[in-house]
Specification:
Elements: H1 2-31, E1 46-50, H2 53-56, H3 59-68, E2 83-87, E3 101-107, E4 115-120, E5 128-134, H4 137-169, H5 173-182, E6 185-186, E7 194-199, E8 202-209, E9 212-222, H6 231-245, E10 254-257, E11 264-270, E12 273-285, E13 290-300, E14 305-314, H7 322-332, E15 336-337
Length: about 350
Amino acid sequence: MKNYINTISNRMWLLAIAVVLIVIALAACADKPTNFKPRAIGSPGELLVVIEDQYWNAATGKVLKVLLDDEFPSLPQAETLFKKTRIAYEQFERHFRTYRNVLMISIRENESSNRVEYRKQEWARDQYVAKVIARSPDELNGLLEQKWSTIKGFFHNGDINAMAESYHVVYEPEAVRHVEANYPFKMYFPKGYHLKKFKGQFSWLDFQRSGSQLGIFVYQCPLDSLGDINTQTLMMFRNNLLRQQVPGEAKGSFMATEEQFPVSVRKAKFANRQWTELRGLWKVQGDFMGGPFVDYFYQDKENNRLLMVSGYVYAPAKPNKAIYMREVEAVLKTLELN
């Protein structure tokens, strides 16, 4: 009996020592700096602007407000590129520091130069911060106008990249397998995308939800079958493909490019390749349907093929379509060439 009591007593001492050691270890860890950062808050397209009242309410603020009212490209109804929230520096603490997109404006008379500093993951994961620093209000106006295209591209592309990365984590396996099995690249589709049509080298995948449809086209063909590649060639190619492959609901109807609205053309880089981007509006010839689209074309001269990936949105009951266009653009930019 005595030996049993001694055994229990020894075990209690060992347990007590173990607890003390754990407490000491935890306390030591608490004193060490941590690299943990919370996930950024806010939706794609939301922008926190940090600028003092004296500049926001003056001529500098007027210039900035005009720039912040830039429209999202190629939508049927005008929408601003960013949904903005403005605060002063004294308010920039706690949850404000974890906003997804943060534009910081400051006047520093003693600075040696005017500049824009771009930071990622500054205070949170998936966060993008641009710091605009100028020596005077007048110089700030000039700096903003000069760098605005780069600044807004930094935030827009940041949103797209963050969305694309999330699609790599949670995706629709069958849609991913289909593209990987039939094309020289891989793409990741969010849950809900399904194959609607597969014919020859053309695939149509879509995602139906209440009041909207998001669609993706994937296509490839011999590059030398098109002759000289230019904007006109790509537009003709696009319209011919849609006429053949994308019928409307009414008999004899088909998807086409809305020619009453300008189509923007620019270069875009992703998947370590240079692509041609087309943005505009689509319609259904012979029916009352339409919406925005974005196409990307890559001339793979080494393998004599033209690659096309395209996204469109149909959401007649939704007044705001920019968020849907961000979603389809993010899907397209998950593309990884083999």
